């Protein structure tokens, strides 16, 4: 590697003008953590209101704004940018590339996000309040009955879409074009594979979301009747278009997590990943299936019987490739020399708890049973189990795995284990009882509930506060690690594999200016 | 600026990583102002308030966007002409443009999907087809048909009196656009053969055909609003009609602007017979717009 490249520029403008994938990756990660706290604080409002039955703290309309914004901020502001940040940092280093393929566009993808979220957050202070129709913004709640701020919400979504599409194009161009000689597709780390497929999903469905919000905008301001039956349109059309985006979207939030866990488990089991090829094909199958299952979100809306049956069975099919993956992770650990460093703890928790979320998803996929579960807290429990110990635990695992590479320091391992256990307990305490209240019929998105749900809700709230406060500890651990700590070696984990461990820690500002040879 | 970058120091074969650039943040500010301005304009229009602020914000945003487009593409052209881009860089641009066009395909798919859904499901269901035809209770006299001339609620959404005859203006437009795709390819072949004046002639013809297309479409819209009663307000046919043809027209405009810039660049002596991806990208886009039109002509006008 050449050693005569210049380092980063000084001052604030370094971050504004940068074209460096590591700078941009760091900005994505910090931004996503800020949004995680922002969306999390709204979750705290929700849990505080639901601590006891009856209306306690906030107006119902404000409660609706909180559930809506919590979902939107977590999906588009916390989880997706965190994975893009990890992609930015790691993909070029994993495939031996000098940077992302289109570095200036990369920076544009990032900088759109703070502006988009500033616009979306500002709707909370506008007359009539912010979006209050749920993160799925079903018409006509989001058209005929929506607050005026919805216009800005729509444009904020457009901005996020532009950002995601450009980011995804960059990822694909990087992976397909910038691999080091010898790094064939089937030698790529699974994190790279999962991101390649995620980027494809993003390019395929973000434009569909743009179409959905554009039709909303036209219905609101220009008198069209896409979602108005009086003009021959159909509110159900909105749900079809939205979920054609929405279902691949949930895989966009989990496939990179699969990639992270597939890197960490072999490292701490000190064994090769079991069934690499089947992992690649499983991810591709999941991505394909994600396009033909969208109406399982709409079983109760009145779709024809043949539709119910088709979407039910297609959904159940997803369990097959997902099962392959879970089996492979377990087989990787089987008879390995396991150690339980923090990334491994989060990864094992991921495998167990994500699988619980998968099983409740299987329950929801049964159309006749879904008539009972639909729009209850059982659904809330399901998707929080796949997103919190799924997506978010994988992000934590990835951060703890690569933080020594990024900062050159080892983090406080004792504190990081406290972070893990507090998150683990807090998260289960929050979401596990939701299965029970959901099955008993507690509806989601309602600020009040029947007395019979009081005990479980109080437990959920206590768990929620615990989980929330614990994340401040994570912030402390990361800042402490950035500031200093024990020097990290180039390869701090003895069982780790991959090109990223061949460069020193902290990774130099420019890596692989001349591509390495991969054998 | 370029000389500071690592790639420039290492000669052939290294991938060009540009130095710091102000364009991404300028682009962000431009995009933000344009969209916020548009939002303000729409909200004051719907609330029937006369507030010009939105216009100013939108206009400021558009100016910033224009400044950014000239500046950013200017940088890229300068870098390309000074030989900083390798064959690998060229492939990055190709992947980038290809996937961008795929994203556009998916954008139009959403509207085509909406068209097929209302046509084959929503409207027949409104007319009572299938076991879920409860809308007959709301609008008893409603008879489903496609194109939908009488809406379920004619008081709010007055149906169109007549539709655009596909074999008049739309047929002319089809001929114009298909021909322009052929002339665009002719221009490309001439460029590969290093025949500059022929390239310019074919490209000029392509541009004229494109702008005439837009003129005909403008006239068609005028005709639809003033003679046919076909408007955005005339129910789901008008909604899908204007959404699909309108976004297509916007894309034709964008494609024509790209080709116009290629015309200017060719006139200035840019590109070589081998190296002209800027032109190819614009041509790809032009063919994509043509294919979308064929879909429109079939599914919006004829069938």
Word description of this protein:
The complex is a heterodimer of chains A (519) and B (303). Chain A has a single domain (13-502), classed as Cytochrome c oxidase-like, subunit I domain (Cytochrome C Oxidase, Chain A, Up-down Bundle). Helices cover 66% and strands 0% of the residues of chain A. Chain A has 16 helices and no strands. Chain A has helices at residues 13-17, 21-49, 60-95, 103-122, 150-177, 190-221, 235-252, 255-269, 276-289, 305-317, 319-333, 342-365, 367-373, 377-407, 413-439, 454-483. In chain A, α3 (60-95) packs parallel to α5, α3 packs parallel to α14 and α8 packs across α14. Chain B is an all-alpha fold and 303 residues long. Chain B has 2 domains: 1-85; 86-302, Four Helix Bundle (Hemerythrin (Met), subunit A) (Up-down Bundle), CATH 1.20.120. Chain B is 72% helix and 0% strand. Mean pLDDT of chain B is 93; it is low at 1-12.
Task: Using brief descriptors, characterize the structure shown.
heterodimer; A: 519 residues; mainly alpha; Cytochrome C Oxidase, Chain A; 16 helices; 66% helix; globular; B: 303 residues; Four Helix Bundle (Hemerythrin (Met), subunit A); 2 domains; 9 helices; 72% helix; disordered N terminus
């Amino acid at each position: 590697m050449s050693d005569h490249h210049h380092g980063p520029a000084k001052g604030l403008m370094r971050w504004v003008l940068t074209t460096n994938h590591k700078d941009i990756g760091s900005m994505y990660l910090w931004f996503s953590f800020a949004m995680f706290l922002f969306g999390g604080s709204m979750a705290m409002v929700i849990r505080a209101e639901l601590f006891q039955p009856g209306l306690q703290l906030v107006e119902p309309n404000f409660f609706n704004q909180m559930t809506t914004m919590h979902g939107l901020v977590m999906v588009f502001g916390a989880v997706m940018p965190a994975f893009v940040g990890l992609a930015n940092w790691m993909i070029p280093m994993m495939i031996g590339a000098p940077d992302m393929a289109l570095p200036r566009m990369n920076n544009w993808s990032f900088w759109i996000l703070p502006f988009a979220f500033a616009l979306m957050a500002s709707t909370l202070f506008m007359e009539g309040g912010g979006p209050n129709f749920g993160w799925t913004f079903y018409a006509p709640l989001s058209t005929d009955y929506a607050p005026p701020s919805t216009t800005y919400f729509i444009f904020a979504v457009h901005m996020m879409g532009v950002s995601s599409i450009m980011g995804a194009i960059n990822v694909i161009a990087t992976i397909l074009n910038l691999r080091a000689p010898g790094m064939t597709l089937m030698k790529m780390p699974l994190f790279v594979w999962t991101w390649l497929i995620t980027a494809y999903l993003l390019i395929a469905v973000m434009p569909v979301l743009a179409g959905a919000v554009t039709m909303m905008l036209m219905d609101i301001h220009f008198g069209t009747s896409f979602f108005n039956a009086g003009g021959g349109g159909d509110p159900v059309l909105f749900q079809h278009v939205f979920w054609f985006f929405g279902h691949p979207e949930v895989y966009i939030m989990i496939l990179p997590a699969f990639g992270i866990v597939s890197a960490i488990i072999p490292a701490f089991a000190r064994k090769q990943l079991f069934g690499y090829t089947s992992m690649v094909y499983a991810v591709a199958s999941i991505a394909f299936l994600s396009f033909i299952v969208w109406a399982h979100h709409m079983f109760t809306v009145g779709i024809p019987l043949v539709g119910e049956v088709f979407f039910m069975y297609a959904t159940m099919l997803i369990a097959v490739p997902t099962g392959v993956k879970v089996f492979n992770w377990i087989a990787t650990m089987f008879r390995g020399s396991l150690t339980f460093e923090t990334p491994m703890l989060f990864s094992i928790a991921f495998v167990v708890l994500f699988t619980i979320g998968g099983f409740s998803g299987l329950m929801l996929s049964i159309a006749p049973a879904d008539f009972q579960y639909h729009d209850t807290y059982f659904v809330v429990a399901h998707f929080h189990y796949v997103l919190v110990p799924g997506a978010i635990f994988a992000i934590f695992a990835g951060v703890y795995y690569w933080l020594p590479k990024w900062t050159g320091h080892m983090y406080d391992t004792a504190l990081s284990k406290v972070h893990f256990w507090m998150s683990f307990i807090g998260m289960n305490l929050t979401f596990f009882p939701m299965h029970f209240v959901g099955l008993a019929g507690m509806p989601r998105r309602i600020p009040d509930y029947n007395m019979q749900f009081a005990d479980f809700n109080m437990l959920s709230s206590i768990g929620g506060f615990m989980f929330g406060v614990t994340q401040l500890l994570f912030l402390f651990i990361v800042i402490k690690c950035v500031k200093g700590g024990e020097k990290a070696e180039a390869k701090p984990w003895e069982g780790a594999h991959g090109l990223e461990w061949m460069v020193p820690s902290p990774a130099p500002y420019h890596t692989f200016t001349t591509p390495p040879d991969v054998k | 600026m370029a000389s500071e970058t690592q790639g420039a120091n290492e000669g052939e074969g290294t991938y060009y990583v540009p130095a710091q650039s102000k364009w991404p943040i300028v682009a962000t500010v431009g995009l933000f102002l344009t969209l916020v301005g548009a939002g303000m304009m729409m909200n004051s229009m719907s609330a029937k308030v006369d507030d010009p602020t939105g216009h100013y914000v939108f206009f400021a945003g558009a100016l910033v966007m224009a400044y950014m487009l000239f500046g950013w593409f200017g940088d890229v052209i300068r870098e390309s002409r000074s030989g900083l881009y390798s064959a690998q860089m060229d492939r990055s641009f190709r992947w980038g443009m290809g996937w961008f066009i795929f994203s556009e395909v998916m954008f139009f798919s959403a509207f085509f999907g909406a068209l097929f859904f209302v046509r084959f499901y929503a409207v027949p269901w409104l007319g009572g087809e299938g076991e879920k035809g409860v809308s007959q209770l709301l609008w008893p006299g409603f008879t489903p048909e496609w194109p939908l001339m009488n809406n379920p609620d004619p008081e709010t959404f007055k149906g169109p009196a007549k539709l655009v005859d596909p074999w008049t203006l739309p047929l002319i437009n089809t001929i114009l656009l298909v021909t322009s795709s052929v002339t665009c390819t002719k221009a490309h072949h001439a460029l590969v053969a290093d025949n500059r004046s022929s390239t310019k002639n074919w490209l000029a013809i392509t541009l004229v055909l494109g702008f005439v297309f837009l003129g005909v479409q403008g006239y068609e819209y005028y005709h639809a609003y003033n003679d046919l009663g076909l408007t955005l307000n005339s129910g789901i046919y008008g909604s899908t009609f204007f959404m699909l043809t309108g976004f297509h027209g916007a894309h034709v405009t964008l494609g024509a602007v790209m080709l116009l810039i290629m015309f200017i660049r060719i006139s200035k002596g840019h590109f070589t017979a081998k190296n002209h991806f800027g032109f190819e990208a614009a041509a790809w886009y032009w063919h994509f717009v043509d294919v979308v039109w064929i879909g429109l002509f079939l599914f919006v006008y004829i069938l």
